[in-house]
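As a representative case, we now present a protein record of this kind.
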Amino acid sequence: MLDSRDESPFGICATKPFRLLNLDGPAHASEDWANLFSLAGVENIGNLGGLWFTDYGNVISAAREGKGIAIGWRHVVDRYLRTGELVNPTGEIFRTGRGFYLLSQESHRLSEPAQIVHNWILETFGEQIGKPS
């Protein structure tokens, strides 16, 4: 187990004067900094403080403006990582086990606009999408 005195990327983030950007609300309790540090094996982190937002878009905007470090949802921040506007300071990627589902009824054919969206999702995120069993 790492300790907050450790000089690993997560140990440094837990102890140095970085402002952590947080998403507030019970639906996101498992996606907070304390949980992320725990998953990374960092202990003894104490009160992390930081800035709190009720909207994830504001969290990412604050990170893009250099106001602090945010937990990024890959499907939202990938474009900013590709352009260098945001960086992953630890190099770590954590999976939440949550997913997004593309659903339709087999008995009803998709409308043309819905089919276009369906095809775009599969083309854009195809390698990240698991097929139903």
Q: What stands out?
A: The chain is about 35% helix and 10% strand. Residues 100-133 form one domain. The two ends are 37 Å apart (CA to CA).
